[in-house]
Amino acid sequence: MAERVELDEAIIPASLEGPGAEDFREMVEVRNAIEAEAIGSDEFSPTAEELLPAWRNTVDEPKRLLLARTDGRIVGRGVIELPVETGSPTAFVSVEVLPDYRDAGIGTALLERLERWAAEADRTVLKAFVAHGPFRGGPELRPPTGFGAVAANAPEVRFATARGYRLEQIERMSRLDVGETAPLLVSARDDASRRAEGYSLHTAAGPVPESWLNDMVDLQQRMSTDAPVAGMDLDEEIWDAARVRRMERDRQDGGRLGLTTVARHDASGRLVAFTELLVPADRRRPVVQESTLVVREHRGRRLGMLVKAANLIALRDVSPASRVVTTFNAEENRPMLDVNEALGFRPVGAEGGWRKDLRATALTP
Question: Which intervals hold domain N-acetyltransferase (predicted)?
C-alpha cells in the first residue's frame, strides 16, 4: 500500500455523465464493497443512479463527502449529514475504509475531519450507523436496550469504541425470498383483515394520490417519533407536502418505483398505517422495504401485518421479476419483527447505531 494518503472533499456531480461523476461512481463501489464484506452479501447495495438524487437534495438531507485516496484510487470515504431541523445538535457521520487499507490511520484521519466539520456547524451529538456481520458467538457487545449483539473484537467495533462512540441500538438486516413465501401472503393478509374491522386498504404505485398527501405528511413525521430509536434520540423531523413530493421525485430520478399501501380508518377517514417498497429499475435486483408505521392510537389491530402483506402481494403484480426484499428493523421492535418473521424475512446481518457526545467528551478529564 502506498504511504501517501490524500483527503479531499468531493464535488457532488449534477449528473452521472458530467464532472465528478467518475469519482461518485467509484465512491459508491467502495461503499458497497465495504458493506458486502461486513455482512457477506451485496443484496443491500444501492447503485450510483439510486443514490445521486438524495445527494443532490440539499434542502432535506444536506451532506458532505470526504474521499481518501492512495495513488489516485479511492480507498475510503467519510460522510457527514446535518439535519435541517431548527436547533438540532445532531450530525450523522460515517467512515468506511477498504479492508486492505485499514490500520494505517486512514479511518482516523477521515473521522477527525468529520468531527471538525460537525464542531464548526455547532453539532455536539454525533451519530453513526455501521454495518456488522451476524453475531456468531464469542466476546460480545450489547447496547443498553439488551436487544441484539455485535462481536466485540470486530474491527469496526474496536474502531468506534476507541474513539469514544458507544453502541446504543442494533437494527436487524433481513431478507425475504418472495417466491418462497408467496403462498403465505394471501392468508396473512386475509387473517389480518378479519381482525382489522373498520379499516380499508388502498395501494398506489408511484407518487401517492393528492387525497393522501396531508395524512402522508403526518405519517412520515411520526416515523421520526413513534419508531423505536433507543438512545439514538433522533430529532423530530419536520415534514410538509413539498417534502413528501421531493422524496418521491428523488426516488423516481434514481429509477426506483415507490409502492405504498395504507390503511384508512373508515370512521374518521384518516390514514393510520402505511408501508413502502422501493422497486429498482432493474427488476431483478432486490426491492427495499422502506418505512412501515402504525400510529400509536391504532396499534394492536394487526394493521402492520395487513399493510405489509398487502403491499407484498401488490409487488407481485407490479414487478413479477422481483425475488428478494431487504429491510431493517430495531431489535427491540418485537411487534414488527414478529410480522416480518411470519412473512418469511430472515436475518442476515446487523446495523449498529453508535453515538458520541462531544460536550461530554470535552468535559472528561
Answer: 22-189
